[in-house]
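Protein in question reproduced for absentees:

***
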Amino acid sequence: MNAISNWFQNSLFVTIDLSDWLDIALLTFIIYRVLILMRGTRALQSLLGLTLVVVLYGLSEWMGLVTVHWVLDHMFVYIVLALLILFQEDIRRALARAGGTFFSQTYARPNDAKVLEQVVKVLFALAHRKIGALIVLERQASLEPYLEGAHPIDAVLSTELLQSIFHPSSPLHDGAVIISKQRIVAAGVFLPISLSKQIARTYGTRHRAAIGIPEATDGICLVVSEERGTVAMVHLGEIVPVADANELRQLLTEELERSASKLKADAPAPGATHAS
């Protein structure tokens, strides 16, 4: 009993204080957010591989594997640098998403009922005529980096304008249309193509581009298949086909309301700002 009592007296959990708990909680939250940002990217696979290397390094030291330990000890820094160089694009995208999530003070509200109704109406009108289309709704993360080489429009959104842009005879029908704050920002936008191997081969370049934006930002992509005449919404890196306008309207409303609720929950409470 004396030995057990001494063990509890010398235990880490007895000597730990509030600052230690805060330190652990903060580090846990940071690691969790990093993993969320890296989810679905090639960088996550590399992180798992790097974790295995670290485990192997610890085992080699514990088991006395001198040669393996020496090689890993001298190569570890170069492995990290190689990963940073190879996956700099994924890291840049993750940082952009983190910036949009943590530091955005305003929320672009594409969930205005009139805007959603116009977008839904245009998508199914184009699908009925088997005209391909790609529309991106901007939210917190800015899509300005993807506007290079696009055709700026900056016009009030209307069904007539959207249909004329995607008409096959229009010089702007190739590429995507970006909608922000109830306005058509640009047309003919060429989005990054997703390199994910999980995308079915039946999907073409337009659908791969639709997945590329959600991998890098929090934008919502809506795509019309020219071959099948179907409408789909890209959500969390997955293509979600929708059967009719009501289903798409419901999916959009739920997704945008969920994001708005999360942003409101993460926002600091009134009067919580620091005094200057």
Notes: Confidence is low (pLDDT under 50) at residues 101-111, 268-276. The first helix runs from residue 2 to 9. The chain has two domains: 2-102, 113-266. Strands lie at 133-137, 151-156, 176-180, 183-189, 220-224, 231-235, 238-242.
